[in-house]
């Protein structure tokens, strides 16, 4: 196969990776570009495919766990979002019964909804996080401690 095909495929996958941030296509794109560079000296498609396959597998196996660990550290609140349950936050935009408002927990601002269909909360009022649904906090009245 023409070496430029490998390189263009690799660059295309790299571009897609920039928008998806899955950190999977990055390794395939890298293997494709390296295969394209090596393909200038080898003409057999079988050799090129073998190089591509081995490079992809090695890159995924050796570096994917490192990137996963780095991503978890970088965006730790996402991997530990369930730890917000039981924390307290302050309402910064009114939470009407059945509607969404905003709550500040620490230095982060979250969308929040009342746990009860009857409770509404005003700005400045303290609430307790009862549940986390995706990136929405379900809040209730602050329990006295």
Describe this protein's structure.
Helix content is 46%, strand content 23%. It is an alpha+beta fold and 145 residues long. It folds into 2 domains: 3-74, no CATH class; 81-141, OB fold (Dihydrolipoamide Acetyltransferase, E2P), CATH 2.40.50. It has a 5-stranded mixed barrel with strand order 1-2-3-5-4. Helix 2 (25-38) runs antiparallel to helix 3. The longest helix has 30 residues, at 45-74. The radius of gyration is 24 Å and the shape is rod-shaped.
Defining key terms:
2 domains, about 140 residues, single chain, 5 strands, OB fold (Dihydrolipoamide Acetyltransferase, E2P), about 45% helix, 4 helices, alpha+beta
What's the domain count? 2
**Uncertain parts:** none
Shape: rod-shaped
Query: For the CA atoms, what is the radius of gyration?
Result: 24 Å
Approximately how much helix is present in the residues? Answer: 40-55%
String of helices and strands: HHHHEEEEE
Give the amount of beta strand, in percent: 15-25%
Number of helices: 4
Number of strands: 5
Main β-sheet, in a few words?
A: 5 strands, mixed, barrel
What would the average pLDDT be, to the nearest integer?
A: 87
- How far is the N terminus from the C terminus? 70 Å
Strand order of the largest sheet: 1-2-3-5-4
Q: What structural class is derived from the secondary structure elements?
A: alpha+beta
Short description:
The protein has 145 residues and is α+β, with helices and mostly antiparallel strands. 46% of the residues lie in helices and 23% in strands. The model has no long low-confidence stretch (mean pLDDT 87).
């Amino acid at each position: 196969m023409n070496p430029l095909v490998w390189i263009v495929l690799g660059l295309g996958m790299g571009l897609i990776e920039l928008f998806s941030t899955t950190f999977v296509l990055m390794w395939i794109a890298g293997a494709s570009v390296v295969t394209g560079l090596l393909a200038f000296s080898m003409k057999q498609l079988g050799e090129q495919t073998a190089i591509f396959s081995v490079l992809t597998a090695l890159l995924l196996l050796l570096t994917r766990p490192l990137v996963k660990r780095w991503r978890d550290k970088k965006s730790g609140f996402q991997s530990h979002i369930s730890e917000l349950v039981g924390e307290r936050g302050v309402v910064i935009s009114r939470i009407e019964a059945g509607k969404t408002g905003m709550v500040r927990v620490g230095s982060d601002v979250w969308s929040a909804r009342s746990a009860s269909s009857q409770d509404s909360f005003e700005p400045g009022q303290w609430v307790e996080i009862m549940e986390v649904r995706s990136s929405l906090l379900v809040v209730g009245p602050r329990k006295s401690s």
